[in-house]
Amino acid sequence: MKAPESQTALAVAQSTALVRKAAARLAKRGLDDLWMLESAEWWFKKAKCAKSQNRLSEFFEYLQRTVILAPEHTEGLDLLGVAYHDGIGTNRDQNIAVEYFRRAAERGYALAQYHLALVYDRVESSKAEGLEWERKAAEQGYAPAVWRLAHRYVWGNGVPRSRFQAEAWYRKAAEKDHAPSQFELAKMYQNDAIQEQGKIYIDDPSKMYQGTRNFSVGVIKKLAEAESWCRKAANQGLEEAKEWLAKYYPS
Amino acid sequence: MKTELVRQLTPEEEELAVKREELARLEAQLADQELLLASLKAELAAFEGLYLRRVGVLYAELDEWNALLAELRAEQAGTPEAKAEADEARTQAEEAYSAAHGEAANVQPFTPSPDLKKLYREAAKLVHPDTATDEKDRARRERLMKEVNAAYAAGDEDALRRILADLETSPDTVQGSGVGADLVRVLRQLRQVRSRIAAIELEVTSLSEADLAKLKAKADQAATEGRDLLAEMASSVQGRVNVARQQVEKKSDSGTDK
């Protein structure tokens, strides 16, 4: 009567042992991959050091070692793309550059997605693909990509014009401390305020001579928001924003 | 005038007293060693859980995509080699899945309180099987020691207190008859305790040489530098998962186009 029970117990014990073995194998795999990653990182650091000392052919060689050891090294792949793109330590080759950008981009590296977008955007036939990569980088919050995407929505460049989308994307970059986006947002809100106030003057021109006392709550709020974004951009050293701040919001 | 009568100890009794003292010291040391081992095991199990949840699942996902890719290839090529490759990839995927989503992955972080450690040391000293006096006692103590270890790994202070209370109320094992028998027993206990201490040292060494322990040491080292090693590993494997997924999607699209 006991046999089936002990057989199940044996089966359970065997499957537990298998799972233990599988877990141990996962640990070994992690350790091996980690070793590769660490060696790759070592070469990558050497590459960056060589670049800073203007030893460009060494820079290029170390980068190659980096991505051979760790084909997942997205920063290394992207930088190698830049090296081929700009001809740093090697001859220029746009096709190879795109290949490296793509490898890093497919692995989810925002900077490489942005680089790929810039390259594709230069050629008419690949503009659509460029937009896709730009959007991917923007969705990861990479500020320059967000900024470009917002611009597209303002001007209807490759996408339908949308004030709503533009504002949302500018805001996303602005919240990441991207100064040009902060300034764009400030201009946007100030324009809104002017338009809204303009409508009030059209309805009742006599208000034009009452100064700021007749500003509606909405207008005041918009102006305050515009000032706050403009100040943030100016604090980051954006010249245009500084001038704008001095001109419209003297304290 | 009172005279105190001090009985002279026989040489055997003196020897017994010395050996008992030595045994007590070694038992305390053994309890410390057991605590060390139990803590190491629990920490490794907790780290393994963390590793499997954060990195292991990604390896499992990677293997799953690779298996799908191999199966798609086998379907399109139709050769026995491709079929064998697909089967192998599928086996590996199942294996990785079983490990990454198994019980080991559920183990939560281990942070023993000083109280828990103290209780464990006390309990280990009291129940340790290597201080058993006969086979029956040994079996009982081995069972209890398992409970003690499980309670410690689970951070269950109450369970340890319960075991301790039970032990204190249970009648002491009857001491043998005569100094000679006692001496023999103490000597035997001494030998058992010493060999257990040596065995623990061996086990600790082999545990800390395991891949998991090496990985943990690296993660701990990285943490002191303010890095999250598991996150770095996870993002690297995630990159490979993304690529494998895109390959499968491309392959299955081209398959349906035909």
Give the helix/strand layout.
The complex is a heterodimer of chains A (251) and B (258).
Chain A: H1 3-52, H2 56-69, H3 74-86, H4 94-106, H5 110-121, H6 127-139, H7 143-155, H8 163-175, H9 179-203, H10 217-235, H11 239-248
Helix pairs in contact in A: 1-2, 2-3, 3-4, 4-5, 5-6, 6-7, 7-8, 8-9, 9-10, 10-11
Chain B: H1 11-77, H2 80-100, H3 114-127, H4 135-153, H5 157-169, H6 179-208, H7 211-224, H8 229-257
Helix pairs in contact in B: 1-2, 1-3, 1-6, 1-8, 3-4, 3-5, 4-5
Give structural notes.
The complex is a heterodimer of chains A (251) and B (258). Chain A is an all-alpha fold and 251 residues long. Chain A is built from 11 helices and no strands. Chain A is elongated. The model of chain A has no long low-confidence stretch (mean pLDDT 88). Chain B has 258 residues and is an all-alpha fold. Helix content of chain B is 80%, strand content 0%. The model of chain B has no long low-confidence stretch (mean pLDDT 86). The interface between A and B is medium-sized, with 23 and 31 residues.
Quick summary of this structure?
Chain A has 251 residues and is mostly helical. Chain A has helices spanning 3-52, 56-69, 74-86, 94-106, 110-121, 127-139, 143-155, 163-175, 179-203, 217-235, 239-248. Chain A starts with a helix and ends with a helix.
Specify the number of helices of chain A: 11
Determine the number of helices of chain B (DSSP H or I, runs of at least 4 residues).
8
Largest sheet of chain B: none
Q: Average pLDDT across residues of chain B? A: 86
Order of helix and strand elements from N to C terminus of chain A: HHHHHHHHHHH
The fraction of residues assigned to DSSP E strands of chain B is under 5%
Structural class of chain A: mainly alpha
